[in-house]
Design a protein that fits this description.
Layout: H1 14-33, E1 37-38, E2 44-46, H2 47-54, H3 59-64, E3 67-69, E4 75-78, H4 83-92, H5 95-98, E5 103-111, E6 123-132, H6 137-153, E7 160-165, H7 169-184, H8 191-199, H9 201-204, H10 226-241, E8 246-248, E9 262-267, E10 276-282, H11 286-289, E11 297-303, H12 304-310, E12 324-330, H13 336-349, E13 357-360, H14 368-377, E14 382-386, H15 388-392, E15 395-400, E16 406-410
Parallel strand pairs: 1-5, 7-8, 12-13, 12-14
Antiparallel strand pairs: 2-4, 3-4, 5-6, 6-11, 7-9, 9-10, 10-11, 14-15, 15-16
Helix pairs in contact: 1-6, 6-10
The structure holds histidyl-adenosine monophosphate.
The site of histidyl-adenosine monophosphate has 27 residues, from β6, β10, β11 and α12.
């Protein structure tokens, strides 16, 4: 039986693993500059947490969650996103008191049962930030700029920043009524739309099958109250003053129900589809709805795999500083212990001059020829050979693996 990774999952190795780590490393540096602190939440949660937060009629809850029962029949779900988990952790741990800045970030795996394609997987990685406790449109603008900074850090310059406001409950109520009226006049809505029209008409706007039929559909901007309008304009003007090019896009509704006012997506042609690299927005009611004190909040998440796809041709993949590989070989088997302890010392102390190195070997019971072949295979730059005569004189041979020249070096010199 040959086992394969489950559909929609993938093993990350080689340059892709290096790229993923570097992206995460750079994200940590940028988050620190913006004052965001890390939080790690469980990979699974009570399934009801996601149903309540993301919304019963969203694709994620209707079709995409990995739900299972544990041995005590608790209904659990692998996390499909990080916002609900973060809000749960915020309330449960009273982070409003212990971390009053309210700036959190997370990095980790998410799970959605989606149809796999390039940039869309069933297990994928998100890097996300959530800013709790700040109602100001300046927080929305900062979140968008922070997301952009992460993309800049991997060399992505061409990006399409889309921003919209979904209004507050008051504007949404009027918009919803107008939408219901409008959709009732559209013929032949698909099954999903008919069902969603009853439960959540805003979701109908998101329909991939019917959206071409929606000409003359009501526009949210006509229903925004003065406060929402002013807030949105302030977000836009702050983005402008920070030099962020954006497009205000009334069609942007997002696939999760918790949003209020600002929503945004950052897209890139490089991924080859309309899918977003980054998405987020404000969700002022979620903390209250999940049992916490009313707390305004705004955040985003980026898909690491998608961002790395978009960074393929930016030079980011050429920027890895690979360490110099050094192989330790033995010409005489009885020097194995000495070579082994030397390798350990070298790993711990490095080379004089502090060069970045990786140390391999020694290997026991192999001829020198086969040791050197292996050194070539792993692309070692140098091989240090322990040979009896030289060793007795306090020296070893250092072989340059490129031009195959070798020199005698005093053991103390390295
Ligand atoms: P989302 O739009 O569902 O939002 O996902 C955010 C990002 O995760 C997407 O833009 C995409 O890059 C990546 N992503 C989503 N699904 C997949 C997939 N199947 N395969 C690969 N990448 C994927 C959220 O998750 C919200 N929690 C964002 C947020 C944070 N809003 C406020 N705070």
């Amino acid at each position: 039986m040959n086992y394969k990774a489950p559909r929609g999952t993938h093993d990350i190795f080689g340059t892709n693993a290096l790229a993923m780590s570097l992206l995460e490393q750079q994200a940590r540096v940028i988050f620190k500059k913006h004052g965001f602190e890390e939080i790690r939440t469980p990979l699974f949660e009570d399934a009801a947490l996601f149903m309540r937060s993301i919304g019963q009629t969203t694709d994620i809850v209707e079709k995409e969650m990995y739900i299972f029962e544990d041995r005590k029949s608790r209904k659990l779900a692998l996390r499909p996103e990080g916002t609900a988990s973060l809000v749960r952790a915020f309330i449960e741990n009273r982070l409003d008191i212990s971390m009053p800045a309210g700036r959190f970030f997370y990095i980790g795996e998410m799970f959605r049962y989606e149809r796999p394609q390039t940039g869309r997987y069933r297990q994928f990685h998100q890097i996300g930030a959530e800013f709790l406790g700040n109602p100001s449109p300046a927080a929305d603008a900062e979140i968008i700029i922070l997301a952009q900074d992460l993309l800049f850090s991997v060399g992505i310059k061409e990006m399409d920043v889309r921003v919209n406001s979904l209004g507050c409950e008051k504007c949404r109520y009027l918009f919803r009524e107008a939408l219901v009226k409008y959709f009732c006049s559209v013929r032949d809505l698909c099954e999903d739309c008919v069902r969603r029209l009853e439960k959540n008409p805003l979701r109908v706007l998101d329909c991939k099958t019917d959206s071409h039929k929606f000409t003359g559909v009501p526009r949210i901007s006509d229903y925004l109250c003065d406060y929402c309008k002013d807030s949105f304009n302030l977000v836009l003007s702050l983005l402008e003053s920070a030099g962020c090019n954006y497009t205000a896009d009334e069609k942007l509704v997002r696939g999760l129900d918790y949003y209020t006012r600002t929503v945004f997506e950052i897209r890139s042609d490089a991924v080859g589809s309309q899918d977003a690299l980054v998405a987020g927005g404000r969700y002022d009611n979620l903390v209250g709805e999940l049992g916490g004190q009313n707390t305004p909040a705004v955040g985003f998440a980026l898909g690491s795999e998608r961002v790395l796809l978009a960074a393929r041709n930016t030079g980011f993949f050429d920027s890895f500083q690979e360490s110099e590989k050094i192989f330790i070989a033995i010409a005489d088997q009885e020097l194995f212990n000495e070579a082994f302890s030397f390798a350990v010392k070298m790993i711990r102390n490095g080379l004089k001059g502090g060069k970045d190195i990786s140390v391999f070997g020694p290997v026991n019971g192999k001829s020198l020829t086969s040791q050197l072949k292996f050194a070539d295979k792993i692309k070692a730059v140098k091989t240090i050979v322990f040979a009896k005569t030289e060793f007795e004189n306090g020296k070893f041979l250092v072989k340059n693996m490129k031009d195959k020249t070798q020199v005698e070096v005093l053991i103390d010199e390295l």
